[in-house]
Amino acid sequence: MAITAAVSAGADDPLTLRQLRLRAPRPDEVLVRVLASGICHTDLTTRAAVPAELPIVLGHEGAGVVEAVGAQVTGVAIGDLVLLTYQSCGTCAECRRGFPGYCAQWAVLNAGRFGADSPLTGESGPVVGAYFGQSSFASHVLATARNLVVVDPGVDPVLVAAFGCAVQTGAGVVAEVLAPGPDSVLAVFGVGGVGMSAVMAARALGVGTVVAVDLSPQRLALAAELGADLTIAAGAGDAAAHIAELGGATHALDTTGAAPVIATALQSLTARGTLALVGLGPSPLPIDVAALIGRGKTLRGSIEGDVDPQVFLPRLIDWHRRGLLPMERVVRSYPIDRINEAIADMASGAVVKAVVTFP
Ligand SMILES: [Zn+2]
Ligand SMILES: [Zn+2]
Fold first, then answer.
1. Which among 39, 85, 171, 349 counts the fewest CB atoms within 10 Å?
2. Cβ atoms of residues 232 and 213 within 8 Å
3. Which of 131, 165, 170, 146 shows the shortest CA–CA distance to 63?
4. Would you state the pLDDT for residue 226?
């Protein structure tokens, strides 16, 4: 079928809306008409890494309506509102243990497919598709039952589209990995889409003290309204010293991937505190081993918050319905023909979560 998609062809060129062909769904696939798609920083890092001769349709926070269901698919019906998330195999050891984020086939299933493996073709040849099992900067995508979750048709797809990556990462790492309690101090470094979700989740979970650290005064002001007890403007003083005045952070989260920020986050931990990393940055990372050992600190990485989307996304929808994830304060929507403006606003920090919409 003919679809419309925002095609990326090199880091320096704007995305262009093009007509592409999407092949028919296979027996294990579902055809989804996309209503909204969040823009995640991973889209931008992939865009920067993919050479211009490999045009790609990015996007991995889709929300839409099911238009066709393959014969082998159960639990999904035409007309269902679905959220799209990353893809996983369902059969490897980590998938069977309930940690599909650590699927043995992660890279193969999420990096995008090219040539005969891609579900997309363009006028001038193949286009990389199935990025994160979706490529949701498009009017229509193919997904499977493993990377979609059927949700209540009453929710606004624009507000919940980002649940499938940024929000489950930020909320999941707080709820499932760090698990701070009412006596804990949680410091969140970087309050973009992921960090702001962590702040909202921490408030929903009754975490004792939540600290937000960021460069942007606007994002810090919003973090304060959404649940941060203390905000610290990074660069305007020693964030670790401010956090030390609270007795140190029992738990910290880095969403930036920036080595100096990670060093500050580690430094801000109290004895036996844990820092979780969810932002990809340049490695290797210099680590103060003596401080790590001497203070019994834990450094932990996490992908997608360690959560199983089939279990965690319904929980997030429930929080959202109860007002605990006020995404209307976080999301700004842009029609798909303004996707380059949305990307620029994301990159500059002018918007916490940009979501593109399809007519
Ligand atoms: Zn993402
Ligand atoms: Zn797997």
1. 349
2. yes
3. 165
4. 98
Token pair in block for residue 10: 């090199």
Q: Is the per-residue pLDDT at 172 higher than 90?
A: yes
Q: Which of the given ranges, 46-60, 130-144, 268-282, has the highest pLDDT on average?
A: 130-144
Ion ligand 1: protein residues whose beta carbon lies under 5 Å:
40, 42, 165
Q: What is the pLDDT of residues 84-100, one digit of tens each?
A: 999 999 999 999 999 99
Return the sign of the alpha-carbon dihedral for residues 11, 14, 16, 22.
Answer: positive
Which residues does residue 30 pair with via DSSP β-bridges, in sequence order? 69, 143
CATH number, domain containing residue 205 = 3.40.50.720
* pTM (global) more than 0.85: yes
Nearest ligand to residue 42 Cα: 1
Q: How many domains, the chain?
A: 2
pLDDT tier at 12, thresholds 50, 70, 90 = confident
Q: How far is the CA of 17 from the centre of ligand 1 (A)?
A: 21
User: Given pLDDT bands bounded at 50, 70 and 90, which one contains residue 13?
Assistant: confident
Give residue 88 CA to ligand 2 midpoint distance, Å: 5
**Domain extent for 255:** 170-303
In terms of domains, do 222 and 96 share one?
no
What is the mean pLDDT of the segment spanning 206-220?
96
- Tell me if 197 is assigned to some domain: yes
